């Protein structure tokens, strides 16, 4: 397993723990080649999360994320983990931004 893959997996689990701490049940979509790394489900809705280690998604990746139709009460997020950060920088991705 290469170091950048390990770092990405570690950060995905860190994002899952954050979501779980606020009441989400989380599923990691490892190996699915999905635009989202984590699906979080709670009574309040669904969170779809793309995790990044250090860099924001490319414009093409953002367009793919924006274009995916989702049900009501679903929010799309980017969690960007900077080197040695204890929390991610979180950005909500809407269809218009």
Provide structural commentary:
The chain is α+β, with helices and mostly antiparallel strands and 97 residues long. The protein has a single domain, classed as 3-Layer(aba) Sandwich (Trna Endonuclease, Chain: A, domain 1), CATH 3.40.1350.10. The chain is 29% helix and 32% strand. It has helices spanning 3-21, 59-67, and strands at residues 25-28, 38-42, 45-53, 74-81, 89-93. It has a five-stranded mixed β-sheet. The protein is globular, with a radius of gyration of 13 Å. 23% of the residues are buried. The model has no long low-confidence stretch (mean pLDDT 92).
Strand order of the largest sheet: 1-2-3-4-5
CATH architectural group: 3-Layer(aba) Sandwich
What is the radius of gyration? 13 Å
Question: Which parts are unreliable, with pLDDT below 50 for 5 consecutive residues or more?
Answer: none
Specify the biggest β-sheet: 5 strands, mixed
Order of helices and strands: HEEEHEE
Mean pLDDT: 92
What is the terminal-to-terminal distance? 35 Å
How many domains comprise the coordinates? 1
Number of strands: 5
CATH fold assignment: Trna Endonuclease, Chain: A, domain 1
Count up the helices: 2
Strand content: 25-35%
Give the proportion of residues in helices.
Answer: 25-40%
Tell me, briefly, the overall form.
globular
Structural class: alpha+beta
Highest CATH level, the class? Alpha Beta
